[in-house]
Amino acid sequence: MEQRYGIIGVGMMGREHMLNLAHVDGASVVCVADPHLPSQQAAMNLASPYQWPLKVIEAAKERPDILVQVGLEYRYMPPIAKLIKEIKSEVLGRVWMVAIREHRFPFLVKVNNWNRFNTNTGGTLVEKCCHFFDLMNLIIAANPVRVIASGSHDVNHKDEEYDGKIPDILDNAYVIVEYNNGSRAMLDLCMFAEGGKNEQEVCVVGDIGKGEAFVPESIVRIGTRAGGREGVQTTEVHDKRVKYAGLHHGSSYLEHLEFLAAIRKKRNQASTASLQEGLISVAMGVAAHLSIETGQSITIKEVIEGKDHEYFSLLNK
CA 53 to CA 249: how far, in whole Å? Predict the structure, then answer.
C-alpha cells in the first residue's frame, strides 16, 4: 500500500526528508507547502526523477485523528540507539550522569539567512540543541527541573550583516540540567570545532558502569566499574535497514520507517517523540538561554507556565 506524504517547509531539511522518502518502499511525496518560491521550485525539481505527482498547496484541513511524531531524529542514530538500548537493559545500573558533546562546524546558510538571529530561531540552544535535551530526558527517564547555562557568540558570523544587523546566535555554550530524581546532565556545544574526529559524543554513567557513543565513528563503548579499563567492550554499530544515510547518518531514514509503521498499523501515536517530549526539549533550550542572559538558574516550570515574563523579552533584545 502506497503512503502519500505532504511536507510543510522544503528548505534544506525539508528536501532532505524528500530524499529519505525516495528510498523508503511504498512512500511518495505528493504535495509541499512553502512560501519561499525558490524552495518550492527546488522541491519540484527534486521530485521529478521519482515521478512524484507533486503539488504545491496553501494549507491543510484540520483532522482530529491526525498522527504526530516530532522529528527528534538523533534518537535514531544507530550508535546512540544502541547505547540507549544498553542503558534500558540496566547494564550501567541506575543512571546518574549524562554528558553530551557536540563539536562541529558553524551553522549552514539557510533560506533568507533565517537561522542567523535569535528572534527567528528562539536561539541556538532551542533550534539546534533541542535534540540533545531530548536525548538527556530519554536516557535519564525523569523530568528536568532546573537549568544553569553559560554561553556566548564569540567567533562565527561576526563578519556577516543582514539589513544592517550582525547575527546574534550563540556559537558555544555549557548547559547543566538537574532532574527530579537527582540525576544531572550536561551539554558542551562548540560550533567552531571542525578539527575533531567526532561531531557528537554521548557519555552515560550509572552506579554499575559507563557507556559512550561516538558519531560519525559509529562506535559504542560499554564498561563496568568491576571490569575496569581492561573490560571495556567496543562495538562498531550500523543498522542494515538504512538505504540512505543522508545528512544525519541514517537517522532521518529510520525515523521515517517508524512513522510509516505507525501509519500502517493505524496507531494514533508513534512509539517515540511525542508532542509533549518535543515541548519539554524546547523548554529546556529556552531555559538555557534565559539562564545565560540573566546569570540565574531557570526552572522548567517558569518556562512552561510563562512566569517572570521580563525574562522572555531578553531573547529579542
Answer: 28
Looking up cell 518556562 gives 303
Alpha carbon distance 253, 16 (integer Å): 10
Residue found by looking up cell 559509529 in the block: 218
Residue recorded with cell 542514530: 77
pLDDT in tens, 258-268: 888 888 887 65
Measure the CA–CA gap between 131 and 215, rounded to whole angstroms: 14
Q: Is residue 118 within a helix (H) or strand (E), and if so which, with residue range?
A: helix 118-121
Phi and psi at 309, nearest 5°, equal: -60, -20
Distance CA 55, CA 32 (A): 6
3-state secondary structure of 177: strand
Instruction: Tell me the three cell numbers of residue 47.
Output: 521530485
Q: What is the pLDDT of residues 43-99, one digit of tens each?
A: 888 777 777 766 665 544 455 566 777 888 899 999 999 999 999 999 999 999 999
Distance, in Å, from the CA atom of 100 to the CA atom of 255, rounded to the nearest integer, reads: 21
The DSSP call for residue 165 is B
Q: Are 69 and 259 in contact (CB under 8 A)?
A: yes
102 and 186 Cβ atoms separated by less than 8 Å: no
Q: What is the rounded average pLDDT of the residues 140-149?
A: 97
Rg (CA), the chain: 20
Q: How far is CA 147 from CA 110, 238, 240, 290, in A?
A: 29, 34, 38, 9
Closest CA to 290 of 272, 303, 276: 303
Nearest to 142 by CA among 189, 107, 177: 177
Q: What is the amino acid identity at position 162?
A: Y
- Helices 251-264 + 12-21 axis angle, to 10: 60
